[in-house]
Amino acid sequence: SWLHCDGRKAKMNACSRASARLLVRRQSPAVAALAPSDLRTLIPGLPSHPSSSPSIDISARRMATGSRGARGHGWLRKYRAGLGGRHLQGRWHYRDNDELNSINDEVFGMNALLNPDDNIPTEAYLDLQVGDEEPRRVMIELASAALPKTIENFTKLCQEKERGGYESTSVYKIEKTVGLCLGDVINNDGTSGRCHPSVGTTTSPYTIKDEGYLVSHTGPGIVTMSKPGVHRNDSRFLITTISAPQLDGRFVAFGRIKEGMDVINEIATGVFTKRGVPTVDVKVAACGVQS
């Protein structure tokens, strides 16, 4: 038989009565105060003589080894049922994209409730230029009714023509499995960013809070804020080129590509990068909004 004490395994026939008593006492201070005779009554298998063959069954609680909890409960049973391996299981794999897309449509459909007299922008455009090529336009549909604060920050940065706007900023990184990263209005390399001065507050002049995770990253063309931490949205954002469920609940998605997704795909696949940084200049030649 095996003795399990403090996570160690030792064969009982290699332990004397004194060593077994010492290991058991380590389990609890109350047990350590017991006499050897009381210890024998507490442990049924403890021998009365050292020469007799011992047989002790002591079960100490141990932490999970990862065969279930770390890999997902019942993953092997699901695998045998034909549901794929561990990498095809979990909350990302089993989510219903059709249902999430219908929710996204409802969120963007709330723009119909806006008052036309308020002139709230519901669309924005970016003219992306690769090197010396002609700029090509990308139209973005905005969730203006559902996320007014986030949209206000984004549209004002699109309209800002002086220093601090999106115009003349670069696509500073291209993540092949996520999308295009842009919007750094300070250093233009993804290390900084700030919200529009009119949107920031005295307590938080450079960032705005997370307004809500209403839009899911269900596929390519989702425009979402890129932030370094919770409630730290500034000017940086990204455009997805693939479904990115890992961003749900982390980044505030506020728009989706309405026209020009071919431009995004050509930049993502056609521009050579070095560790994600484009080797040619990909910049926002012009930008603006439409009501």
> Which residues sit in consecutive blocks of at least 5 with pLDDT less than 50?
1-16, 51-58
Sheet/helix structural class: alpha+beta
Main β-sheet, spatial strand arrangement: 5-6-8-7-9-4-3-12
Query: What's the rounded overall pLDDT mean?
Result: 81
Order of helices and strands: EEHHHHHEEHEEEEEHEEE
Instruction: Please state roughly what percent of the residues sit in beta strands, choosing from under 5%, 5-15%, 15-25%, 25-35%, 35-45% or over 45%.
Output: 15-25%
* Helix share, percent: 10-25%
| Span between termini | 78 Å
Number of beta strands: 12
Q: So what's the overall shape? A: globular
Radius of gyration: 30 Å
Number of helices: 7
Instruction: Please give the largest β-sheet.
Output: 8 strands, antiparallel
Condensed summary:
The chain has 291 residues and is of the alpha+beta class. Helices cover 22% and strands 21% of the residues. The chain has seven helices and twelve strands.
How would you describe the overall organization of this protein?
The chain is α+β, with helices and mostly antiparallel strands. The protein is 22% helix and 21% strand. The protein contains 7 helices and 12 strands. It has helices spanning 17-27, 29-32, 36-42, 75-80, 97-109, 148-159, 261-270, and strands at 2-5, 8-11, 123-130, 136-142, 171-175, 179-182, 222-225, 237-240, 253-259, 273-274, 277-278, 282-290. Strand 1 (2-5) and strand 2 form a beta hairpin. The longest helix is centred in the middle third of the chain and has 13 residues, at 97-109.
